[in-house]
Structure formats: C-alpha cells, structure tokens
Amino acid sequence: MTTTTPQATPAVRAQRARRGLAAAPFLAPGVLFLIVFMAIPVGLLAFYTFFKRGRFGGLVFEFTLDNWAKLAEPLYVGVILQSIGLAFIVTVLALLLGYPMAYAIAGLSPKWRTVALIAVVLPFWTNFLIRTYAWILLLNNAGFVNQWLQAIGITDEPISMLYTPQAIVVGLLYMYLPLMVLPLYASLQQLDPSLREAATNLGASPWRAFRTVTLPLSLPGALTGCIFVFVPAMSNFVIPELIGGGKTVMVGNLVRDQFYEARDWPFGATLALVLTMLLVVVIVIQAAVSRRVTEGPRRG
Amino acid sequence: MAEATAPSTDRADESVSAMTDAAPAPVTSRPRRGRPRGILVPLWLGYVFLYLPILVVVVMSFNESRNLFVWTGFSLRWYPELFADGAMMQGLANTLIVATGATLIATVLGTLLAYGIHHYTRGGLIRAFAIAPAILPDLLLGIGLLTFFSLLSFTLGLHSVILAHGVFATAFVTAIVLARMANLDPSLEEASRDLGMGPAKTFLRVTLPQLAPGIVAGALLAFTLSLDEFVIAFFTTAPTQPTLPIVIYSMVRFGVTPEVNALATLLLLVSIVAVISAQRLTRLTGTSR
What we know:
The complex is a heterodimer of chains A (300) and B (289).
Chain A lengths: L9 H39 L2 E3 L5 E5 L2 H5 L3 H33 L3 H12 L6 H12 L4 H8 L13 H26 L2 H9 L4 H12 L1 H17 L2 H5 L8 H10 L4 H35 L1
Antiparallel strand pairs in A: 1-2
Chain B lengths: L11 H9 L19 H21 L17 H7 L1 H35 L4 H11 L2 H14 L6 H25 L3 H9 L4 H30 L2 H6 L7 H11 L4 H27 L4
C-alpha cells in the first residue's frame, strides 16, 4: 500500500488511474471549491502587493515594489511590533491563567471534568461582539468596575480603563482564554499519572514531581495553546477598535483601514500577507519546538 | 468516554495505564497524588473572569432604564423592543440564511472530502489543503475574497457571505468527519466491496450511516461558527445586507440600546442549549471514542 515505485508498470499506472477516477467524485468538488474561493483569492492578494493602488480601491496594473518598501517606514514597523508585543503579553497571561485552570480540571472526577470543560467553552460560543461589548459595560468610566471600586472606596474619581492598551489586553485575554485551556487540558489529561506517582514514591516533593514530570510533558499542549491564542490575538481588529477606542492600532486595524478608509488595497494586501507570514513563522517554530519536546526525552 | 471500569481511582485512563504498567495501582499515595485542595482556587477565579462580563449583560437586560450603567428596577421591556427592532431582526434573518447556506455547502463538500482523503490519498497534501481555511487568518480570507469578488465585479450580498463562510466551514466539517472516519471499522466497507457493491454504493449504504454522528457534529459546528462569524462577513457582504454580528458591531460603534443586552441573553440561552445537546449527542453516539 505505501510503496510508490518510481517506474510504474502499465498495470500499476492503470490501477492508479482507476483509483484516481474513483477518488474524483469525492475529492473534486471540495478541492475545486477551495481552489476557487480560497487559493485564488489569497493568491490574488499576493499578486496585488506588486501593483499600484487604484484611486478608488482596486489597482492599476503597473509593477511596483513600493508596497513592500513602505513596510520599513517607522510607522508601520511600530504597528507590527506593537501587535506582536500585545499578542505576546496576552499569550503569556493566558498561559499563566489557563495552566492552573486546565490542571485543576484534569484532576476532577470524569463527571465534573465534563461540566468544568463545558463551562470553559460556553463563553466561547456566545457572540464575539457581545462579549466585546460586555467589557465596555465593565470598563467604561461610568461602568461597573468603576462603580464597584468607588463603592468599596478604593477610588473617588473614576479610573479611565476603557480605550487603553491594557483594556485591549484584557479583552483579547478574555476572548481567547478557552483556546488555551482546551489543549492544555487535553495534554494534562493524557498524561500518565503513574509517572508522577513514581516520582512521588521515589521521594520527590509534589512541587518537584510537578516541575520535573508534569510540566515538561504538558509542554506540547502549552505550545498548542499559545499558538491558538497568539494567532487570533495578533490579527484581531475589533477589540483594538471597540475596547481600545482605535487609539492603539494593531496590524488588523491597519489592514481594515487600507480597505475601507485609505482605499489602498495593494498595501492592505501586503500588510495582511506580512501578518500571515509572521504567523506561519510562529507556527513553524512552535511545531519544531514541540517536536523536540516530545521526541527529545525518548531518544535521550 | 470514560467507562465505569476504574476501580480504585476516578480516572478511566489511569486504570488503563496502571494495567499496562503491570504495577499494582498504588493506593498508597492517598493525599490526591500531591494535589492540594487549593488547586481549585484558580479555576474558580478563571470562571469569575469568564462569566462576570456575561452576567453583567444578562442582569442589565432586565433593567428598566435606558441608561446602560445604572440599575433602576426590573423590567422586561427590552425583549419586546428587541423583536420590534427591524434592523436587528433583519440581521438575524440574514445570519440564519447565511449559516444555513454555508452549512449545506460545508456538510456536503466536507463529508465527501473526508471520505476521499481517508480512502484515496496517502500524503497529507490534500488533507492540509482542505483544513487550511480553519487555520488561515480570517482577515486574510476576508480581504482575499473581497478582492476576488470585486475583480470579477461580482455583486456582494448574502450569497457572497454564504460562499465565504462555506470555505472555513468546509474545513471544520472535513476535520471532524475525518476524525470520525479514523474510528470506523474498515472491515464493514471491505465486506461491502467484497460483496460486489461499487464505491458509490458502499459510501451511501455503508459508510454514510456510520459517519452520521460525525457529520451532524460537523454541521452543528459549521452552523454555530457561521452564526458568530464577523470578520469575513464584514468584508464580503453588501452594506445593505448586514449579518447580526455586523448589526451589533455598528450598534456598539454608534450607540447601544439595552436591546443588545436582551439579544445577548437570548443568544446565550441558545448556545447553552446547543452546547449541552451537542454534548449529549456525542455521548449518546460515542463520537468521542
């Protein structure tokens, strides 16, 4: 089954053709659909990055590298770095908050584990914009956090919380925390408890057993969770706009503006592709690290 | 799921590993294998963080006042007002149309793809291609499709959102049906083929019924994701045909009325029912192992 000989005899070739023919009705519709509505549109964006903008959106067929050169301008470098920074902070916070949560859930009885997991996922299934809006209710100057802070006498004047970078971080963290907890839980739950027991039986303290056994073995789940949080956090433009008040611009906002306000589609396409390439690099690094983590100890 | 075979511990997989390790399950480590009681504190804190905003919205949906931040008294007035809001109801109708269309596309294409990938491909290329839209940033897909449609002078509207949502929804259905496929007993299909049924007949009569729970789960996921999707819809619809998330977005930008709270409460109720019934469904049919 798995052998692919370079020189195919006519019989093998005929068999392959028959297989191909049998596969076509299953594979062709979906593949064709995805070529037309995914591969071509994304390819088109790549193509657009080398042309000049049209006056009212669209483009002029005149080759240029300006769109790529423009990325080096301090303004755009700053936005890209700021996005990376914010997404990074969000990811670290999600890991710090999500790890203990996943760890606690993995230790529950099967029945409560299911309930606890549903409780983590449920907010994720409520509308994204409504969850964003909920934070406006909380963080506004007249909002509930300020009301509560004033009620318990921590502050007299309302503290401005909405429309700050910190608010963006809280909003993104809130949005993607479940995506950190789930893979972490999956890897912690698969973890063979006898390993930790062995460590404890051999005299390791609970903390040491955790640090030397549980933590390294849960790293792949942690890495997956980090990707799940970092990737959408990095390209989100709704939260920076609605909770950040548009003052803190992230790459996503810039892309949106290029398409709706500046009407510079080629540059917008360039930014979106750079964003995607950055995310691909992050994912490739994650895959490499997680391969080393999972394979390394077994070989050694 | 977890079978009731776990004797001394509360974890089914634990008992399995204890058996394979051929070591007597150590009942000695009683203090919960070094798990202190306080382990649940961060979990509860996490839930407070996750549910506080939702709770505030739900409570304020029963507020009498138009003021979003001040509780003046109990009232149900925002619920009828929500249903009387033309823009909101139109958005809801649009969203349901889009989600239905996208789910239909995705369920058919995704199921076929999963079957084809499982049976006829060896490398991971087509699999990766089919699942790529689930990983691709929505922003990229959104502006890519906008660019593509406008190049073809394709009029934007609900149909373009249906096609756009069909793309990522197909990826999710494919992934879920493939997972289900991997758990199927291949001997049934072989028996069917040995008995002289062609691939199409085998697919329809033997494979499809076995895949049904996976397909239903995939369709449910596709539908829910489409209901909630904002970014791609934002780029691929006409301004005159906003989906519900787009209506909410413009409300949040330009002025919120407490109707949004009522809407949020109802949507929350719908997702609770959906998540719980999906959970029941997978448990009944045993999709998750």
